[in-house]
Amino acid sequence: MVTKQDVAERAGVSTATVGRVLSGKGYVSAEARARVEEALKALNYRRNNLAANLRKKKSNVIAVLVEDLLNPYYMHLAEAMVEHAKEKNCIVTLFAVKDRDVRRVLDDLLSNRVCGIVNLAMFTCDFSWYDIFLEEGIRLINCTATGPKVIVDYTQGMRQAMVSLQRAGRSRPAFLAGIESWLAPNDLRVRFFRENAEKYGMTYDPELVLCGSYPLVKAHHVGYDLCRELIRSGKPFDSLFCMTDMMALGALKALFDHGRSVPREVSVIGCDDLDFTGFFQPALTTIAVDKRAEAYAYVDLILDDDVNEQDTRIIGTHLVERSSI
Amino acid sequence: MVTKQDVAERAGVSTATVGRVLSGKGYVSAEARARVEEALKALNYRRNNLAANLRKKKSNVIAVLVEDLLNPYYMHLAEAMVEHAKEKNCIVTLFAVKDRDVRRVLDDLLSNRVCGIVNLAMFTCDFSWYDIFLEEGIRLINCTATGPKVIVDYTQGMRQAMVSLQRAGRSRPAFLAGIESWLAPNDLRVRFFRENAEKYGMTYDPELVLCGSYPLVKAHHVGYDLCRELIRSGKPFDSLFCMTDMMALGALKALFDHGRSVPREVSVIGCDDLDFTGFFQPALTTIAVDKRAEAYAYVDLILDDDVNEQDTRIIGTHLVERSSI
DNA sequence: GTGAAAGCGCTAACAT
DNA sequence: ATGTTAGCGCTTTCAC
Fold it and tell me: What DSSP designation does A125 have?
């Protein structure tokens, strides 16, 4: 293990000087710098983050909380986050919050002195000891009601979706919300529809907003079950908004299993635009979220200096038309 | 920040004693233990892994190398790995090796003094400075030709698949291998077929083993492209082995787009048994890998004491029959 | 411009 | 059975 000390000795300077050339801060004579750089290369020095982090009382780890590593939307985000974090010399690690067992995860996070936490999980965690994190200088995103946040603005995506639906002559969409009913009413997509349905010649029927138990149950199963339930209920509907593409995958199957043709009899719209939504049968029309922007925003909110408590990043959406409408 | 010192003071003992009750090693009088435990709880002590790791010259981080966080098979493994690692007080972090740029990732790993590396990426990394890792006591799995390894044994899965195919009256399967051609011949599935085709009344035609450029291109696209190419080539085939379920997803779409009915005209078999393969159209029959066992094996090989260089864990497979054969 | 030195919080070897 | 102490490798303040 090559230490700073080793480098300093070889270069004939002190560790402080080595530190200066490494960090780029402070004065170093050109001559000393050259010698240090030579030594750095010759010895193949690599700094020990463990030590650096201990000294700085903070690690270079961004924790991302998800309830499920198999949710492809999260993985899209995670992928972009590790990429962006890397540019800033940080690594991201995923923590699975199974069964809402936040408590134990929180322990982990504290022990490992992560530098920030991004909560991707649906539920507001029990961050009641929230202050502990603040005391430690750990930034929290989407963890508590207050603090910096990133929100996805579905306005444009929804508007385009409604235009598209209208063009297809649809007027009674059902919503496969999937999440628990106390969360659903706040959903921006549902709300946008409720407030603008008339404008597009559609009707809003609260009975057609179906809730489920995601994330306890996998999204595609929720989609399937909800859609089947909807069909069996006999309530009329001519189109389907699914809160996620994976739910749409389930819905598509349910529709197929019950002999309802898509898009002839019913139009289906997903949300997320996963990398393989175009491979659904039929290819799914979906509201795409700018996932890269979302991911970058998370990382920036954790790492950047000029972030304040009210900081809010808005992420855009747009419709990707394929063949399910 | 509550330190061991704080706890020791409150309990009226030394830090060493606190250390002993925490680690469970060494003698502590019942009375002292009680006082320490009280203090631990009252102060809500949480050990600083940064410091512990520095001292032990090793972190509690298992690095997992993947080329793509969007590969659901990896995510199945990752999920089980974080779960198992957690039981052993470790965390796993995923490193994306884009464009085979292993070098920079290796830097990261060294800097962060991870305690072990599991290489899930297809290609054998350029671990030429391999020794550096060994010197640091970092365990490597699937990174080099030697060392402990876990291998997936496709024998049972393949045998069951061939029985199933035979029953369906198929005899000329094509293989969508997807990976580059210098890797494909070593594939255990292809080899098993080659060596046993006759037994099941099938013919092995090397022309029907199609290679591609995964992981540079997403698996479902590779599957689509390869399958289309196969169809256009006019070479006769009545069934399709796909190396992964995601490739099968692409193949299914290509087949559909070209009016070939599955399973009437051609049988399709995937491999992996992802959580949503049952939702493909039609539901995919696939060779399931015991992913949990695989994941646990990786973690154990990194963390357990009694692991030697030749250690090899075998992972089983079996066929999951759905409707694509 | 450069160096010396004081810890960060923990573990473990050694002493009592 | 319990306490003392010497670092792990780094950063950073302060003195020269």
Answer: P
